[in-house]
Amino acid sequence: MTTHPPLHEDPATRPSDPAPAPRHGAGRRWVRVLLSATLILVWLAATGVGGPYFGRVGEVSSNEQANYLPTSAEATQVQALIGEFNDSEAIPAIVLFTAGSKLDAEAVEQVNAQVADLVSVAGVSGDVSPAIPSEDGLALQAFVPIDTDADIGDVVDAVGERLRGGVPDGVAVHVTGPAGFTADLSEAFSGIDGLLLAVALAAVFLILIAVYRSLLLPLVVLITSLAALTVALLTVWWLAKAGVLLLSGQTQGILFILVIGAATDYSLLYVSRFREQLRAERDTWRATTRALRGSIEPIVASGSTVIAGLMCLLLSDLKSNSTLGPVASIGIVFSMMAALTLLPAMLFLLGRAAFWPRRPAYQPELVLAERGVRTTGAWAWVARKIRLHSRPIWIATAALLTLGAVGATQLNAVGVPQSDLVLGASQARDGQVLLGQHFPGGSGSPALVVVPVDRLQDAAAVLLGNDGVEGVSVVAADSPSGSAPVTADGIQALGPPGTPAPEPTVVDGAVMLQATLADAPDSDAAAETVRGLRADLHADVADAILGGVTAVAVDTNDTSIRDRNLIIPVILLVILAILALLLRSLLAPVLLIATTVLSFGTALGVAALVFNHVLDFPGADPAVPLYSFVFLVALGIDYNIFLMTRVREESLHHGTRQGILRGLTITGGVITSAGLVLAATFAALSVIPILFLVQIAFIVSFGVLLDTFVVRSLLVPALSYDIGRAIWWPSRTLGGSRLR
After folding, report:
1. 377-396: per-residue pLDDT in tens?
2. I want to staple 624 with a disulfide (CB 3.0 to 4.6 A). Which of 452, 464, 594, 620 is the partner?
3. Are 434 and 98 in contact (CB under 8 A)?
4. In what order do the strands lie in the sheet with 447-452?
């Protein structure tokens, strides 16, 4: 008869004989039932209050890049002054009219009549400019200011519909410019509350059915995840309403996915413990309390690691990054709370019926017999292979990952044009392309220069001397168009000979110049023009500051790159410190961090290959590697934590090498299921046609699967097995027990 060495007898997992029935047992059971029911009712009440807020996130969120720049950025300083010069903070829409042949006077008059009528469209703010003809006579453009407080997407649609119904036959209408691209983003993000949530929940539900082969238990887990998400969203909504947090569409999408994935992972850990205890305990309450004692530490350690990584984003100068840390951390807190309160309460009331049709039977003798590690199954097979071939396995695995990581150098993460942010069809993108064919590419989105009034002409000379600038004007309130052209000779008159030139608008001794760029405002060429103009202005006109749409993009990309280079090393140090405290070792945490970084590099390398040669993406935002790193390291390291904490526990009683094999075999199933759930939930982000989110979805999903099936299953156990007990250096003992 084969005997198995006993596992470390954790009181949370040790089987016990049925306790004698306590006095007043029925009364105690009702108290326990009442406590569980109260917890469930509290969560359901909070969920009922928070549910309607899924459709109200737009009230407290913004997708404008300029709102997320630091106050020290030049573009931010200029943005704050625009309203003082123009008495309006409306966002401009550029309406482009194109035809296959030259537009005659009658057609131009008909278009102008339609344009003039746009003031009657709700949300159109201020005066609408007359249609301006192109030099080739094939196009007209008009500038339509749209109130920032209105639903910009609805106003853009209304403007387009009104014009298409009244322009001459053969004339096409495109609404582009800042308002057009904002409308595209709003439409793309509109699926977050419905489509994204439905796809994520459906994917998790199918995986849970496959894992548990039950219908009721997956529903219980999904209810837990939805409750955590709803209460987290309610909290975040009111904090954003109060101005404590900034919320954007991408932050909202990440919050949804992160909470569903994390809450489900934590639930999987608890369900595994609860099912184990139901086999060892006849009483459901005892099984619940023992499962809780065995689950609290890994769940809290896991959530705390994620929160620590996320809060490092507070170091970012870019508010879209820094605000994600608190928002996502709030989601993780409620994920842990739901998994440790709501889920245990529901499972206590349901008992063994929750697992129907595969109810765990009360079998303490069988549990006792299985206290040795099973020798059959996939993970036992993997453990045997590692025992026999540890060095070849970790060397081959590390070499393969290194090869994949080489491709990370090909990831073009220096920013993408605004016109490429939305995937699929885009009226604004098509309109911008046509605009560049008939007008200067920067029409409607000029570079804005604020300069002391006595240096106006000096600044104008710098602007006009740049080949990337088509023309310069100065904001002038007494001009019919709101601005007056500026040449090397000064401000030009707009009327017949003898008409005096308009006086520029002066605010606190400064004027605002508008430089029309030759290239599309979101192009690389326009960005280089802005960088060159800034360098020249700072050299010749020291007090000048330059902003505008292109400058906002430049400052955003530069700030994002600085943030990335600062935050990634800080996250590594924070996670290293947490692992060192948790494992009471220095070598093991260093190796875990190194394997995680290698896995991250491989995920980026594969992503670069797919993005560049399969999906043909135009590049990536600088924040893509940062966000991917945060999620992969903070979430992926959890699986290594769960593995190595169990390995350390087993090593105290069976020696390090045997402990590694036992830890791998014991944790394999739960961690694999958790990895599949997390990968599936992040993959759901790809249903939102935003380039940034699709790229995050691929990198994180692929990286989580890589961590789950390669790094945590092969590389870390094989490397640790090859090193042996030195893996715990400098620690040698724990709690009086010697590591072997």
Report:
1. 788 889 899 999 999 999 99
2. 620
3. yes
4. 490-491, 483-487, 469-475, 510-517, 447-452, 545-548
Amino acid 29: pLDDT: 80
Q: Does 312 have pLDDT greater than 60?
A: yes
> Contact at 8 Å (CB) between 282 and 232?
no
Which residues lie across from 547 on neighbouring strands?
448
Tell me the C-alpha distance between 376 and 589, whole Å: 30
CA distances from 273 to 298, 304, 312, 669 (A): 11, 20, 32, 12
Yes or no: say if 302 and 268 are a contact pair by the CB < 8 Å rule.
no
Is residue 607 packed enough to be buried (19+ CB in 10 Å), middle (13-18) or exposed (0-12)? Answer: buried
The token duo for 1 is 């008869």
Name residues whose C-beta falls within 8 Å of residue 401's C-beta, 6 or more positions apart in sequence: 598, 599, 601, 602, 706, 710, 711, 715
With CA atoms as reference, report the closest residue to 92 among 37, 152, 22, 145: 145
CA distance 249 to 235: 16
Nearest to 677 by CA among 706, 638, 697, 704: 704
Q: Model confidence at 735, in pLDDT bands (50, 70, 90)?
A: very low
| Residue type present at position 113 | A
E strand or H helix at 143: strand 139-146
Q: What is the pLDDT of residue 87?
A: 67
What type of residue sits at position 605? Answer: G
User: Rounded to whole angstroms, how far apart are CA atoms 294 and 372?
Assistant: 18
Task: Tell me the pLDDT tens digit for each residue of 575-621.
Answer: 888 888 877 888 988 998 899 889 999 999 999 999 999 999 998 98
| 177 Cα distance to chain centroid | 26
Q: Give dist(CA 144, CA 156) in Å, integer.
A: 10
Residue-range domains of the chain with CATH:
1-55+191-371 (1.20.1640.10), 90-187 (3.30.70.1430), 378-410+584-740 (1.20.1640), 446-520+523-555 (3.30.70)
Question: CA–CA separation, 668 vs 646, rounded Å?
Answer: 11
Answer for the pair 269, 295: CB distance below 8 angstroms, yes or no. yes
Q: 733, exposed or middle or buried, with CB in 10 Å at 0-12, 13-18, 19+?
A: exposed
Q: Are 304 and 578 in contact (CB under 8 A)?
A: yes
Residue of 196, 169, 331 whose CA lies nearest to 265: 331
Nearest Cα neighbor of 55 from 184, 159, 194 is 194
How far apart are alpha carbons 274 and 224 in whole angstroms?
Answer: 15
At 614-662, the pLDDT tens digits run 999 998 988 899 989 988 887 777 777 778 877 877 787 788 888 888 8
Q: Name the H helices within 315-455.
A: 319-322, 324-337, 343-350, 364-369, 378-406, 427-438
Length of the chain (residues): 740
pLDDT in tens, 134-151: 988 999 999 898 988 788
- The share of the chain scoring above pLDDT 70, in percent, equals 91
* Interval 7-20 mean pLDDT: 43
Scan for tokens 């990831």, then name that residue: 411
Residue 59 burial (C-beta neighbours within 10 Å; 0-12, 13-18, 19+): exposed
Distance CA(176)–CA(522), nearest Å, equals 13
Question: Average pLDDT, stretch 537-555?
Answer: 91
Per-residue pLDDT tens for 663-680?
888 888 888 888 898 899
